[in-house]
Amino acid sequence: MSSVLCTICARGGSKGVKNKNIKELCGKPLIAHTIAQAKECGLFDHIVISTDSDEIADVATRYGAEVFFKRSDELASDIAGKLEVIKDAFLRSEEHYGVKFEHLIDLDATSPLRLPSDIINAYEQFLKDDNDNLITAMPSRRSPYFNLIEQDKSGKISLSKKLYFNVLRRQDAPKSYDMNASIYIWKRDVLLSENSLFLDKTGLYVMPEMRSIDIDCELDFKFVEFIMSEKKC
């Protein structure tokens, strides 16, 4: 089995939902659901949290994750990119544990509906296809070839993407997907050398909509809370 590091990146000061990462969801903090999934899938020796918040660090530690550094103010700002945050956590972890990890799997704390089997299956697909990295998504409700539109500076409205033929039914359009910010997988050398998420050998693991809600606002939180309560959490 390859050496695989799990990171969960969770900064404080969320705008859409106050204290989102530690807000209680079905009896425990939001981030605790992702930590539990990471532990249950059995792929990781280390589950590392990247955060700038002492409160998040305390909660994450209590639920079994490892917090041995505090994220810098620069990487905790509103303009910091997720990829740079992941690289920072990865390099810090290699130095801290004295291990060169072959792969990294990053789990977003705001996607608590994923299953441990999603993590396992996505990783198995990543290995089978020899991807450089892998992202997760769900089939999109809207198609850029059919009913997603754009408006230019002059006010003209057009389809987001055009084909050489008219698409009369959404089902006839090329398949499109909504990224669900759930699971990201990287080969070590690719992670450290690339600055883009979309590469020639980027893999796609498709998840159902029911497990793909990414909590970004209070309405998302209520949707997830309802779904989890229906499943009895």
From TrEMBL:
InterPro entries: CMP-NeuNAc_synthase (IPR050793), Cytidylyl_trans (IPR003329), Nucleotide-diphossugar_trans (IPR029044). Its EC number is 2.7.7.82. Transmembrane segments: none annotated. Keywords: Nucleotidyltransferase, Transferase. GO terms for molecular function: N-acylneuraminate cytidylyltransferase activity. The keyword Membrane does not apply. It is an enzyme of class 2 (transferase). The keyword Nucleotide-binding does not apply. This is CMP-legionaminic acid synthetase.
